[in-house]
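go over this record:
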Amino acid sequence: MMAAALFVPGAAAVAQVATNAPPVVPGARPVPVEHINVHSRAIEGNLGGESADRDVVVLLPPSYKASPKRRYPVVYALHGYSIGAEQWTHEIRVPQTVEGAFAKGAREMIVVLPDSKTAYGGSMYSSSATTGDFETFVARDLVAYVDAHYRTVRDRRSRGLAGHSMGGYGVARIGMKHPEVFGALYLMSPGLSIRPSEPPDAKNQAALDAVRKPSDAADLPFQLKAQLAVAAAWSPNPSNPPLYLDMPNKAGAPQPDVLAKWDANMPMAFVDQYVGALRQYRAIAMDVGDQDTLKTVTQQFHEALDRYQIPNSFELYSGTHTSNVAFRFQDFVIPFFSRSLQFPKDR
């Protein structure tokens, strides 16, 4: 299945490709999968008409139904740009990879995949009057719902947050702002740098100008649609109907005030203000493929944490932006949380 990850350095985008699947692990026990809908008060009333009722995929441990008194840690896993939660299950090959991780020794946990796709392809897991407050949806509404409806360990030390590409950006953003909710973070090829470097040509500018409502963006080229997504998230403007956003270029000229808003939303721009929050995490990990253009900014984020002596790990592995993401989810992400989260017997 084709998917896409948001990363717009120089107005270029990295298109995802179908991912490699790890072999089935012998003896892996089935992981029950539930498809639910979670209403988010934080997303209500947004100007863009995004639904406050969000699809969510929940992967339960093999022992969940047979152990009615047992409670489990939870990992919240955030998808990338242009896909939703259901599409991401195919990309990271769940439930197979979760089953494989458990069969290879990872302790059982609940894995939750919320859908944060918007009419423009992605929410950036940000707070915006135009698209809604997806940051609070994840950190408050979703966590509260899962804790109320599943046998979770209701402790920040037993909650993990992971994400790929745009989802990796979401982990950085939400993780820094909400250490009271989560206890460990894993950033997979995080989209930490998004900025157009030049105005669009006349044809592209005309295509953007023709968008009068979110549905008009459905057939736009990837790069143009991605710019609308970022603008809706980071430069909303309730006084600028019908889209209620400001674009970084207008009439062929860069708009410095809008670009400044985009820059202010880059994790490298605000990481220094959240050092105390980052120190509260039991563990932080990040990885990126050696053929991924995101490798430089990911390493820069790792080095920023190192400068403050915040414990974290960084791995540059062999692969593209998406080629081995399913392997990483099975063999690294789930085992990382198995080691890093607090389980009931640890208490």
Q: What stands out?
A: The first helix runs from residue 85 to 91. The CA atoms of residues 292 and 321 lie 5 Å apart. The longest strand covers residues 33-39. Confidence is low (pLDDT under 50) at residues 1-16.
